[in-house]
């Protein structure tokens, strides 16, 4: 692996961003245990390092080829000596639009359950959630969209 595994949970988001910057799905997957799982922002659910690597590799070499992923706010909750839950708000810039051009920046919160081992901290599971400012939930009225029910 081009980047060492984190020695503390708080280092994981920076390691994830460095792996992202390599544009290699195997570098992302190397941060996970062999039997880990990952749920992306659209609900695709991959189990196992190879199945985490493949879609990341495809995305990093296509619509995410010119992106930058920057970690922001980090919150860690230790559940013992060798288990931690970590959330990080990331900002993604440079995503390619389906028809060409560049999408605006977006934020996402990645939740990782991390386990410490002989080589450092690795994720056993991760879930990615897009941040939609000002919205409360999603509705499907023929098109899935963010909605806000609060009175104006």
From TrEMBL:
Residue span(s) of domain DUF4440: 14-122
InterPro entries according to UniProt: DUF4440, NTF2-like_dom_sf, Steroid_delta5-4_isomerase
Protein name as it appears in the record: DUF4440 domain-containing protein
Alphabetized Gene3D superfamilies for the sequence: 3.10.450.50
Domain of life: Bacteria
């Amino acid at each position: 692996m081009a980047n060492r595994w984190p020695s503390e949970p708080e280092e994981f988001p920076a390691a994830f961003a460095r792996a992202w910057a390599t544009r290699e799905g195997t570098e992302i997957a190397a941060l996970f245990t062999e039997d880990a799982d990952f749920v992306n922002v659209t609900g695709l659910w991959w189990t196992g390092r190879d199945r985490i690597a493949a879609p990341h590799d495809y995305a990093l070499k296509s619509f995410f080829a010119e992106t930058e992923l920057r970690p922001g706010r980090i919150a860690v909750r230790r559940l013992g000596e060798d288990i931690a839950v970590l959330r990080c708000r990331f900002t993604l810039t440079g995503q390619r639009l389906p028809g060409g051009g560049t999408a605006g920046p977006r934020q996402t919160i990645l939740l990782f359950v991390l386990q410490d081992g002989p080589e450092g901290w690795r994720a056993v599971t991760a879930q990615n959630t897009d941040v939609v400012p000002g919205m409360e939930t999603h509705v499907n009225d023929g098109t899935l969209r963010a909605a806000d029910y609060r009175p104006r």
